[in-house]
Amino acid sequence: MRLNLTVNGRAMTADDVWEGESLLYVLRERLGLPGSKNACEQGECGSCTVYLDRVPVCACLVAAGQAQDREVGTVEGLADGEELSTVQRAFIDEGAVQCGFCTPGLLVAADDLIERVPEPSDAEIREALAGNLCRCTGYEKIMAAVRTAAERSGGTSGSGSSAGGDRT
Amino acid sequence: MTGATRATSPGPERIEGHAKVTGTARYAFEHPVADPLYLHPLRATIARGRVTSVDTTAAERVDGVRLVLTHHNAEALVPIGDPELAVLQSDEIAFRGQLIGAVVAETQESAAHAADLVEIRYERMAHDSDFRDDADIVYTPDADASPMLSPDLEEGDVDAALADAAFTVDATYTTPTEHHNPLEPHAVIAAWDDDGLTLHDSNQGSHLVRDLIAPLFGVDKERVSVISPHVGGAFGSKGMPHGHVALTALAARHTAGRPVKYALSRTQMFELVGYRPPTRQRVRLGADREGRLVATEHDSLEQTSRFKQYAEQSASASREMYTSPNRRVTNRLAALDVPAPTWMRAPGEAGGMYALESAMDELAVSAGIDPVELRLRNEPEVAPVSGLPFSSRNLPACLREGAERFGWHERDPRPGVRREGDWLVGTGVAASSFPSLFFPGSLATIRHESGGKYRVEIGAVDIGTGSRTALTQLAAEALEVPVEAVELWLGSTEQPHASLAGGSAGTASWGSTVVEAVRAFRTEHGHDPVSGAETTAGAGKNPDAGEYAMHSYGAQFAEVRVNADTGEVRVPRMLGVFAAGRIVNPRTARSQFLGGMTMGISMALHEHSVVDERFGHVVNHDLAGYHIAGNADVGSVEVDWIDEHDPHVNPVGVKGIGEIGIVGTAAAIGNAAHHATGVRVRDLPLTPEKFLR
After folding, report:
1. What is the pLDDT of residue B8?
2. Is B659 tagged catalytic?
3. Confidence of residue B2 (pLDDT cuts 50, 70, 90)
4. Is residue B451 part of a domain?
5. Which positions fall inside the Aldehyde oxidase/xanthine dehydrogenase a/b hammerhead domain (chain B) (predicted)?
């Protein structure tokens, strides 16, 4: 099939797509956007988390055909040009990035959390990020980064990213 | 010389942090290559035997399939002594899941589909995958055959000392098979052209991969390039190249220069890239009335593979830890028809110290001595077996500082007497130790670009630990320039030879190399070098090597809650205090310790690769069935370290921090669980049913 979709605000097309292949495969292997990671292939680890019509999903569990005419937001769309989003900046500042493979999915999940819950409690952060496995950091620095990002967002909506599209 | 740090600066931020948060850091599988093909492996579905026939007709008819490779059409490789790399060289099957072929196609999906259509017939032979203590399969490895093995040890008269001891412990502990599960699956892109082979490979040592793969294919090393700028975790599983690298390079021989890409699935990682072998360890301790050890005996039985021996010698944890006039340390292996184990974070120490430090807690309970105090009373003046002085040993400082910070002095030693609602509450402690290693043979190039900017090159690999950042700092410090003036290049064989990222020895080995190379540069070019001035040099032999016992140490404290009705175990609070020489970058170092401790929580509570010995495979071979600690499994984890200046370990005073965080964690948690419940569980992981009786 020919797949038409919007990724990070840009209209994109991929040809000769098998409807059953994953959105993750389309992003990584056909559209040149390998930021979203493939680490478990079955929705356990959260490394492939992207926005699909502003809802975070595991891109490995979304069939390519399901993304037809929809809006996808990936880690590559979080920053505004050279300006990092609040969660991206906080992850660097707090040392929440190690090997970096879980990072793209975590950033999208954290971005979504702060959008939904501007002042999350620790329990809410842990619960929201429970589906994003990290094998390096031990989560403490990720917790610190999300707290910092929430603080810097001033408890108001969003973390300044555009990956989620125009959230109204 | 000692005293807890109160960190002033957090240290520079991770150099590649920006690339990683923007999704632009390129991992092995993501390197842009023109016109790639995708590989899907064929794997044995029996645990022992041979392939009798392969029918590839249906697979070859699938649209997009370019190659079906088996032992019938694979080229001969040069035997280099590593059975894992000798893929498709015969019809023999030594373990279930073994690589026996590959399909290469235009897309990943068509390769996978075609692989399902290959019909393979086998001659089945009886296999043995049941880990047990049985003379038929158990042997003592030849310690003379490998510098990595220590021989069994017998000092004094252990049996007589135990008979006379005031207090004794005799306990057997088991640890299960565990899999590393770095988030990034092993991946490689292989391409042959007129210049040779290029591998974009996720590994812990690009030069090591080249040093093994080049002779395997009978080509000069200069004709093999290995590139690995970013690696998504490894934990030992990417230390040695495994069969998939050889398989992908073999397949790429048939594709007329088109690159072949292969990333393992999570399930394949449970059979093809090593694991921590299961252990059964018996520890006997004897102490006098004051709690001083008079006898230490530690015997470890570990699984290895008949296909390829691997020995990590868990009992060796008891060689140098505490003073004891009588000592027996024995390490045995049980060889089975299973995949080859390999190094996994703190190989030997993680399991061995779990047993020793659990036994020390049992001794403390039976002697009625506080477990912190018991360890302090058994602190050796010199390394017990070698008799060497310690380059530095600050275990007592870690224990005292940790006890103070944790609020240990308020502890009621009685087990099973604290209850808050449905939860039984307890606290536990364990010590950590890990050898301070230095791998020789690395080289670094220092080049003055212009205007005070320097380019530093070393072929080391940053597996996510922060090596790139720490080495940049050490180079800048040695050059006496700001960090921003140094551009560090690493990860590939394009840079000078560097040792493996392993043994917690990266910063020690490569940092020393960079610092010595800077000194050589200054000697050659002075402090006002011309643009283009360049020196390549390495670190010389450490004159103190062999003169001192060199280890890092730590003390781990845990609070554990066990649900009185369900047996659920929670770890709301942990504190680790470490003494590991110089901490180059507090920001990245803290994360390493935290990550190690969290993997220790995971080891204590969750991790268990369940083997079905009828078939010889791991049943829970994905992240749904193999639990690693998630965010909601972890409570407060605090880390601190003792300021430690060690002039003997190496020129940069670094002892290594990648592994010690996992050492002792599971024992501290198990000891706290006993304190909470009065139930002593000696079999990891500490799953709920073990506390219900």
Report:
1. 54
2. yes
3. very low
4. yes
5. 22-126
